[in-house]
């Protein structure tokens, strides 16, 4: 098993890519802290792991709240004694709202979940990693963080910021045995669309103008496989990088 005796925190683990990552990590021997804002989903995923013979602890977490992020990491340490892998997967979409129509409320909400929550989790985990001189951070960034119009202005900016943060942390703490990488998924069949309501017609038309070039949509399990690679020693020489997993869409 690639993650035997490792302790991992996975945010947004109640569904989609986060759920697939949590399940795969558990199969590979990790003790998983299943974090998500949805209490029912957190319990269901935890039960699924335990019933399959794995170890998991549920924690209801709104990553936009500092207190919740603190409690999430503290739970891992209190339950399992340490933390080895942090997967910042939680994220929301922005209704494809273009810059002209962005409100402060939308902008701040997107950054609170997608970017600030990621930063706070990293900030909380780093002292643990620094003390043990080892640790892995994986951020789910999206191809929206690499290109200009896969979503609205707020989502695009928030994911670009996550990639910048990933590279900064990866390089600055490389000498301390800490690695920080990001995954940039393309179109993946998840329920993230449920975080959208009344999308902008103009913004969606512009964002989807290249959708016909997408060879196919991916599955959450395919992204989980990338997260397993980045979380394991198989990627020991990979740091500060963004792994694009999009079926070739952005190769066009």
Overview of the molecule:
It contains seven helices and seven strands; from the N terminus they run βαβαβαβαβαβααβ. It is an alpha/beta fold. It has a single domain (7-251), classed as 3-Layer(aba) Sandwich (Rossmann fold), CATH 3.40.50.720. A seven-stranded parallel beta sheet has the order 3-2-1-4-5-6-7, sandwiched between helices. It is globular and about 50 Å long. The mean pLDDT is 94.
Measure the end-to-end span: 36 Å
**Using DSSP, what is the number of strands?**
7
Broad shape: globular
Helix/strand structural class: alpha/beta
H/E element sequence: EHEHEHEHEHEHHE
| Share of β-strand residues | 15-25%
Could you tell me the CATH topology label.
Rossmann fold
- Tally of helical runs: 7
Largest sheet: 7 strands, parallel
CATH class label: Alpha Beta
What is the CATH architecture descriptor?
Answer: 3-Layer(aba) Sandwich
The named CATH superfamily = NAD(P)-binding Rossmann-like Domain
* Helicity, as a percent range: 40-55%
The overall pLDDT average reads 94
Radius of gyration: 17 Å
Overall domain count:
1
Uncertain residue ranges: none
Q: Based on the structure, what is the oligomeric state of the protein chains?
A: single chain
- Major sheet strand order: 3-2-1-4-5-6-7
Overview features:
252 residues, alpha/beta, Rossmann fold, 7 helices, 7 strands, globular
List the helices and strands and how they pair.
Elements: E1 7-11, H1 16-27, E2 31-36, H2 39-51, E3 55-60, H3 66-80, E4 85-88, H4 104-132, E5 135-140, H5 153-172, E6 178-185, H6 201-207, H7 220-231, E7 242-245
Parallel strand pairs: 1-2, 1-4, 2-3, 4-5, 5-6, 6-7
Helix pairs in contact: 1-7, 3-4, 4-5
